Structures are given as structure tokens and as C-alpha cells.
């Protein structure tokens, strides 16, 4: 399922993760880490004081996500349980408990929204006493000095929320995995086998090479290509085994792969920024 | 009970339905009641007619009947026709209670929010609702209505731009209460005063804040 | 007609008389109506009891009955209990007409992130910035500032620990906006804990196995 994540400065990593996992029903490895990172960086940029605690917390979560993501992305070459897996399990439990807490308050927030929507249909009467009681009604300005008024004006004019700096436009996705997948499926369907070096000979940037590599990994994961590397650091040969029906880029396989585009986009974005 | 019943039928243009809020006349009556409940100023028959999508004559008949029924039922409020419009007001028979309430119970001070809004109107007049909301970062309508009802603030004109937004300014009464001759006697503001451009920019910045 | 009936009977302390405004209960009801008509904020049962010279319990019963009768008669207004007091408000069923009248434009809605933060404040108050940030996973300053500016949340004190962090809580306005009488009317938080299925789904999404 194709989706787009709108980075909103005020939405935190937990929100983002939850929204993606809960509502969009995407797998964890589809989560755009760069979105999360960008949101966080934007928050930090807007701070007068650097929040070390928050940053540490965030880095921990980001690290867990990267770890989990990379494991899901790579083929399961060795399945033995390693020691660090236990540490990972622990971290995962931690993350899970945070997500459960966050889910709870998300749901509570939605309920508050419902209550407010309901209540906002009724407008309160605020007319106050009519002129018959004017003489009696306490003068609301009694005791308000000119200085109070000046201070109130300064408060009101100063206490403006800071305008948000739009950051979305900074990210330029030169090429996404979705686009690459589309062309890879066509090229491979036609040529059947090609070295990765040849495949990326026309790449204009390292980004594009990376994105192609991710595309190939995805195709491998889907069982559409076979990979062969005779010697370490040698040429990687990509062989199409997906059948001829897949030469059409709009095939079901192509559709399924669109989600991965986010990852490519995110890596491209990060590379671009670095 | 935190709120007393919230069925969700007849909006404007909705066909009258059977049941409690049934007949067309009853819907119109209730709509008048709803509007007058939230109004701080008398509402003209013409405006009511527009809101209810019926003739001015029908509105007048309806209001007369409603007023008579309140009187007959011995309600504590009455529907009065004053200064070119209709309004709900406390019934004269219960003025004693109202006086005691006004003396003892009514808020005797402007809230901080109301004072800030009043101050912004005073210094930046003429200002529109939207500008006020943008400056304060909140919808200013409720507070504005209170200030108008209390006679501190009044409509002073219309924006010439598209939309012709109503512009607000302070009243003579406001000046008198604060012992000022003219607005130029207001103490000067120190520090940053946003220009119209800045206000507009703020308005824009606030807009994407809507729910996901 | 310039005003609809201004007979001059029962003020406070006046003996109930026979006739339309007759029975004691009806006088009390009408007095409540009169006071709420001129009020601009919710009026506490205690104050009403004082004005009417009757017990708080009787006032509460009376208001409940009055609210029920408005509802039953399909009135355009309702008598609601919010933020610790009673107020007249337009009936939700006629929001369409009222919105056309007040021209507020829909008040800008809170974002999901703001709502979630609001929920944390509501259920965990008093709460510090750091606690909020920890729960939401990011710095909460921006959202908090918005909630304060919109009048949902305010500083309510200082932590006694080192650093004396500012503590936040919900406001009277929060109760009014949500149509709640007191904070104890908030739906219990336990009702929002995700189901076992959801937790399992989250758990699965985090499982580091290679998916196919």
C-alpha cells in the first residue's frame, strides 16, 4: 500500500511510529526513519536550550529502530541466537511498553476530541446583565490601570507561537526505490542477468547506487532475483527469476514493493543532507 | 449530568422531522431560541429571517408567539423587542434575584484573556477578528462578544479588502472609564510591535495546525 | 410591543402568590432562569442556593428537572452543568443556525499530537515538561505553548524537587470546552489501554525476524 508521511514538527517519534504501525498497517521496515529524524532535528532546532535527556531518549529509540529495521531488511542468513539478541529483546520490550503507553494517551486524546466536538455544538450564553442592571454591574475595568493595559498588550503581542519553519522542501528525493524498482523489474525482465556494476553504470550519484542496491535487496527478498558474488568485493551478478510476467512494472509485485520506496527516499534524503 | 441531551437533527436546510423537534414551526421556534441564547445584542427580524430562511413577517409572528408563551408559562426570561431587534432578557418579575446576583455573584474583573484582547484592540485598532485571533493565537470571538456587550469595544467599520471583515475599535466609554481624552494618551508600547505583514504571516503559520 | 410583560411580583423574600407565577417551585425555577439569562459564566449551585435561599440539593434537583423539561419540550436552549456550575447554552441540535449567526468560523481544531499531549496533562496533572516529553518521545514545548495559548492548559505550580520544574494542569476553560462538570467526569484512562490484540500487533511489528 502506498502511503505518504507528512512530517509535522509537533508529531513525535512515538506518534509517527504508532500511526504507521496502527493505522497504515505498515511493517516496521517501511517506517521512514528520516521522517522521524527530521521531526526530531526540527524540534531541537527550535529549542532555546538543548534537551540532553530528550535527545538521549530519542537516540536510543532511533538506534533500536535502525537495528530492527536492518535485521528485517537483510536476508536471514544465520538464524542462531546471538548474545546481542537478548539485549535487543530487552530494548524491544522497552520500546513496546512506551508504545503501549503512547497508544493509551492517543486513544484518550481522540476521546477528548469527541467530547469537545460534541460540546462545541452548544454555544454558551454570555450576554451578561442588560442595561437595566448597568448601574449595578461592577465595572469590569475598575482597578485596571493604564499600565495594566499596556502590559496586557505587550503580553498579547509577544506571546505569539513561533512561526514554524517549513522543512519538508529541504528533502529532495532524487530517485526513490519505487521508481528504481519499476525500472529494475523492466530491465531485469528483459536482460535476465546483469552485474550490479553495469546496472548502476549510469547512476549520477552515490544515492542512486544505494537506492538501486536497496531495490535489488527488496527484489531478492521477494524471491524475484538471485544474487551471486564469486569473490568478496567482486562483481555482484543479479539474475531475474521472477518469470516474464513481471516485465510489466505495474504488476502486483511492483505494487507490493512501493512501500519500500519510503526507505529509499529516506536514505536518499539523509545522504543528500550529509 | 455534564450536558443535557444532544440530539443531532435539524440544521439549516434540514427537513423537519417527526418526533420531539418535530413540526416545522417548532424547529423554527427552537432555532430562534438557540440564536437568541448566544446573542449578546438584539438580533433583527431581518437577520433571523435570513438565518431561518423564512419571511420577516413569519419571524415576527413567531417571536410574538414565543414571547407570549414564555410570559404565559411564567418563565424567568422574556423575549423582548428592543432597539430594532429581539433579545432574551431576564423577566422583570425576577429583577430582585438578578440584582442580587449582579451585586454578589457576577464576575467583577476582566479575565486575563479578555484584558489582553481589549488591550490589543486598544493599541491596534481598527482590527478584524482574524487579526485578533492570529495575534492571541486563539479564537477571540467569545471574548470579543463580551467586550462588545460590555460596551468597551464596538464595530468601527469594514475592511476594504475582499471579505470586508468587520473592524473593531474601542468606544468612548472605554476612554472615559480609563480616564483618557484620546487614544493617543495610551502609554506607548515598549519592544516589538508586529507589522501587518507579520500578523499575516502568523496567521498563515497558524493555519496548518489543524488535525491530522 | 417594546417589552413583553413586566409584572412586578416575586423578588427574593416575596411570598409566593397564586396565579401564573404561583407555586414556590415555579418561582424558584423562574429565578434560576432569570439569573442564568444574565450570567456570562457557569453559576455554581452554591451561589444559586444563596440567591434563592434554599439548599444546594434542592437547587441541583431543580436544575436537573428544568434541564429535562427543556429537552423534553424541544427547546433551542439547554441547561447544562459544566465546569462546576450551570449555564444556558444553545442546544446542539441547532448548531447549524447558531454557527451561521456567530460567524466564528469553525475554531481551529487541535492536531493529534496536541490532543495526545492534552490527554497526558488531563490524566497526569500536575505534570512537568520533562514528564510530557518522556511520554510523547519528543520535546513537548511547542505543543504545550499552543495548549496554553488556547486556554486548555495553564501553569499550576512548581515541582518541589530540585530544579523546581513548572507543573502544568488543565484549566476551567478545558472543562467548559469539553462540556465536563469536573475532572472526575473524564472517562477513565483504563478504558483506553489498548487491547491484548493491539499489543500483540505492536509486538509483532517490532519483532526483529525477517518477514516475508
Describe this structure in words.
The complex is a heterotrimer, with 1 copy of chain A (274 residues) and 2 copies of chain B (212 residues). A 3-stranded antiparallel beta sheet of chain A has the order 1-3-2. Chain A has helices at 13-23, 33-45, 52-73, 83-119, 146-158, 177-191, 196-199, 206-221, 252-256, 261-273; strands at residues 193-195, 225-229, 236-240. Chain A contains 10 helices and 3 strands; from the N terminus they run H-H-H-H-H-H-E-H-H-E-E-H-H. The two termini of chain A are 29 Å apart. Chain A has 274 residues and is mainly alpha-helical. Helices cover 54% and strands 5% of the residues of chain A. In chain A, helix 3 crosses helix 4 (83-119). In chain B, strand 1 and strand 2 (85-90) form a beta hairpin. In chain B, strands 3-5-4 form a 3-stranded antiparallel beta sheet. A two-stranded antiparallel ribbon of chain B has the order 1-2. By secondary structure, chain B is α+β, with helices and mostly antiparallel strands. Chain B is globular, with a radius of gyration of 21 Å. In chain B, 47% of the residues lie in helices and 12% in strands. In chain B, helix 2 packs across helix 3. Chain B folds into 2 domains: 12-93, Winged helix-like DNA-binding domain superfamily/Winged helix DNA-binding domain (Arc Repressor Mutant, subunit A, Orthogonal Bundle); 112-206, Arc Repressor Mutant, subunit A (Orthogonal Bundle). Chain B is built from 9 helices and 5 strands. Chains B and C meet through helix 1, helix 2, helix 3, strand 1 and strand 2 of B and helix 1, helix 2, helix 3, strand 1 and strand 2 of C.
Amino acid at each position: 500500500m502506498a502511503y505518504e508521511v507528512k512530517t509535522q514538527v509537533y508529531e513525535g517519534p512515538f506518534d509517527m511510529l504508532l500511526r504507521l504501525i496502527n493505522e497504515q498497517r505498515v511493517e516496521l521496515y517501511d517506517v521512514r526513519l528520516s521522517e522521524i529524524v527530521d521531526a526530531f532535528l526540527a524540534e531541537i532546532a527550535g529549542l532555546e536550550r538543548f534537551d540532553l535527556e530528550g535527545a538521549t531518549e530519542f537516540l536510543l529509540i532511533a538506534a533500536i529502530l535502525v537495528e530492527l529495521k536492518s535485521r528485517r531488511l537483510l536476508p536471514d542468513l544465520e538464524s542462531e541466537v546471538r548474545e546481542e539478541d537478548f539485549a535487543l529483546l530487552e530494548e524491544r520490550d522497552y520500546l513496546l511498553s512506551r508504545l503501549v503507553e503512547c497508544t493509551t494517551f492517543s486513544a484518550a486524546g481522540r476521546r477528548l476530541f469527541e467530547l469537545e466536538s460534541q460540546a462545541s455544538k452548544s454555544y454558551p450564553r454570555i450576554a451578561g446583565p442588560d442595561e437595566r442592571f448597568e448601574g449595578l454591574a461592577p465595572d469590569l475595568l475598575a482597578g485596571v490601570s493604564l499600565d495594566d493595559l499596556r502590559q496586557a498588550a505587550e503580553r498579547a503581542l509577544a506571546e505569539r507561537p513561533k512561526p514554524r519553519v517549513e522543512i519538508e522542501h529541504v528533502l529532495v528525493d532524487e530517485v526513490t526505490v519505487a521508481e528504481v524498482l519499476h525500472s529494475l523489474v523492466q530491465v531485469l525482465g528483459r536482460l535476465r542477468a546483469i552485474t550490479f556494476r553495469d546496472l548502476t553504470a549510469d547512476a549520477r550519484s552515490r544515492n542512486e547506487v544505494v537506492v538501486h542496491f536497496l531495490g535489488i535487496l527488496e527484489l531478492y527478498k521477494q524471491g524475484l532475483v538471485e544474487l551471486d558474488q564469486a569473490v568478496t568485493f567482486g562483481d555482484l551478478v543479479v539474475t531475474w527469476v521472477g518469470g516474464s510476467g513481471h516485465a510489466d512494472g505495474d504488476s502486483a509485485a511492483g505494487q507490493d514493493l512501493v512501500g519500500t520506496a519510503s526507505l529509499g527516499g529516506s536514505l536518499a534524503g539523509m545522504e543528500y543532507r550529509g | 449530568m455534564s450536558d443535557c441531551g444532544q440530539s443531532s437533527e435539524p440544521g439549516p436546510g434540514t427537513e423537519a422531522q417527526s418526533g420531539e423537534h418535530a413540526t416545522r414551526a417548532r424547529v423554527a421556534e427552537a432555532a430562534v431560541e438557540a440564536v437568541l441564547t448566544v446573542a449578546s445584542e438584539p438580533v433583527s427580524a431581518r437577520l433571523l429571517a435570513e438565518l431561518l430562511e423564512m419571511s420577516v413577517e413569519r419571524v415576527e409572528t413567531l417571536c410574538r408567539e414565543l414571547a407570549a408563551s414564555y410570559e404565559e408559562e411564567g418563565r424567568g426570561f422574556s423575549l423582548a423587542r428592543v432597539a430594532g431587534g429581539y433579545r432574551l432578557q431576564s423577566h422583570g418579575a425576577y429583577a430582585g434575584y438578578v440584582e442580587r446576583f449582579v451585586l454578589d455573584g457576577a464576575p467583577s474583573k476582566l479575565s486575563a484573556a479578555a484584558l489582553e484582547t481589549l488591550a490589543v484592540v486598544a493599541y491596534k485598532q481598527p482590527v478584524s477578528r482574524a487579526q485578533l485571533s492570529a495575534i492571541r493565537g486563539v479564537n477571540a470571538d467569545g471574548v470579543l462578544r463580551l467586550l462588545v456587550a460590555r460596551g468597551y469595544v464596538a464595530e468601527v467599520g469594514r475592511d476594504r479588502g475582499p471579505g470586508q471583515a468587520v473592524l473593531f475599535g474601542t468606544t468612548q466609554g472605554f476612554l472615559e472609564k480609563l480616564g483618557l481624552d484620546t487614544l493617543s494618551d495610551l502609554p506607548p508600547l515598549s519592544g516589538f510591535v508586529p507589522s501587518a505583514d507579520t500578523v499575516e504571516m502568523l496567521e498563515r503559520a497558524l493555519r496548518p495546525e489543524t488535525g491530522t
